[in-house]
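Design a sequence for this backbone.
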């Protein structure tokens, strides 16, 4: 299904996103981040759904305007069907159905994680499977074997918290805003990553799974021992050590996966893939191993609708009216693509 002009919608969490994509070329991509969640220190599902309702139509109109197209020039609708917050997903899915149905357009329900992987299929410099993809985001952390465009196989995944979740929780303990990734990264620049000892979990585990909850507990204990003032004084060192431990585990598992199977290329996906020390460490690793590395632009790492269009162009569309009773799903995979 390559080459179609697709209007894609993504509302699985707290970003209201729409994009127009033709083949693997992004004609427009609009992301409206709901800053309101900052005051709560995390995403409030009910608030997210209400804001998606307010934002979805202006965001779609903006995406069409920027692409210089009208709805009449769109050939299919793509939409994230899950996993994510169910109320938030339903806003995007309902909008997609409401646009597609009167025009008798096909609709392509898409897996959000397939989207994070498929961001790598987009211009500039599109990557073709097979490749090994490390996906690290707010809700997921996994090593995905991408053997074709249509889906992926999970080789290893987190047994507890996701990397992004650990980053956000750690950042919160250090009094940084939400989401914590960018702020933690910035603060860590001034810190010494070796000043405190953080465990790099699962390093002796022979498999490819991850675990981040022990690291979070380690930070709790270090902060308790330092006391409030001590934490304030050593904030940069704590941020640097905590971030280094997360990056260390991600890179250790990627290294192990490369030792287990020959891969012609490595790619990253998900919001944590925006992290500069992670990008630098993976760049070094791939240079050492002589493996091609694809780093998607930072705007394609965190949630966006262009990646949903990229996944959709390799997913079977549902013709009208078959999708009218298609439902969103909060976890697991219920689209034809996604994890196997
Ligand atoms: N520069 C950065 N360094 C580290 N982490 C970052 C950076 N930028 C964003 N993040 C983290 O990325 C996460 C958000 O990623 P993303 O938008 O892909 O997640 P999500 O959509 O909420 O979760 P999922 O994709 O699993 O459903 C947050 O945890 C955020 O802190
Ligand atoms: Mg995401």
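Sequence:
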């Amino acid at each position: 299904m390559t080459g179609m002009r697709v209007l894609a919608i993504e509302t699985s969490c707290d970003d209201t996103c729409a994009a127009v994509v033709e083949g693997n070329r992004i004609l427009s991509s609009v992301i409206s981040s709901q800053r309101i969640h900052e005051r709560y220190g995390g995403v409030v599902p009910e608030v997210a759904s209400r804001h998606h309702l307010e934002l979805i139509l202006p965001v779609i109109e903006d995406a069409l305007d920027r692409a210089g197209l009208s709805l009449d020039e769109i050939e299919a609708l793509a939409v994230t069907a899950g996993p994510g917050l169910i109320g938030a997903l339903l806003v995007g899915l309902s909008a997609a159905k409401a646009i597609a149905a009167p025009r008798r357009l096909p609709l392509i329900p898409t897996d959000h994680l397939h989207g994070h992987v498929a961001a790598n299929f987009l211009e500039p410099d599109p990557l073709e499977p097979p490749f090994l993809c490390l996906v690290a985001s707010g809700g997921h952390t996994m090593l995905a074997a991408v053997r074709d465009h249509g889906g992926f196989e999970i080789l290893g995944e987190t047994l507890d918290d996701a990397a992004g979740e650990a980053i956000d929780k750690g950042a919160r303990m250090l009094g940084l805003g939400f989401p914590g990734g960018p702020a933690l990264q910035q603060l860590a620049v001034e810190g010494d990553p070796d000043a405190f000892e953080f465990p790099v979990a699962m390093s002796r585990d022979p498999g490819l799974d991850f675990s981040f909850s022990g690291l979070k507990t380690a930070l709790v204990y270090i902060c308790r021992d330092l006391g409030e003032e001590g934490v304030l004084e050593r904030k940069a060192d704590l941020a640097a050590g905590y971030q280094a431990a997360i990056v260390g585990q991600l890179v250790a598992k990627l290294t192990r996966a490369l030792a287990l199977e020959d891969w012609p290329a490595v790619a990253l996906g998900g919001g944590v893939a925006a992290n500069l020390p992670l990008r630098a460490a993976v760049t070094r690793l791939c240079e050492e191993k002589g493996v091609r590395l694809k780093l998607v632009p930072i705007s394609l790492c965190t949630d966006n609708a262009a990646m949903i269009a990229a996944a959709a162009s390799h997913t079977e569309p549902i013709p009208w009216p078959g999708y009218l009773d298609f439902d969103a799903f909060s976890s697991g995979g219920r689209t034809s693509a996604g994890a196997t």
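Residues 213-260 form the longest helix (48 residues).
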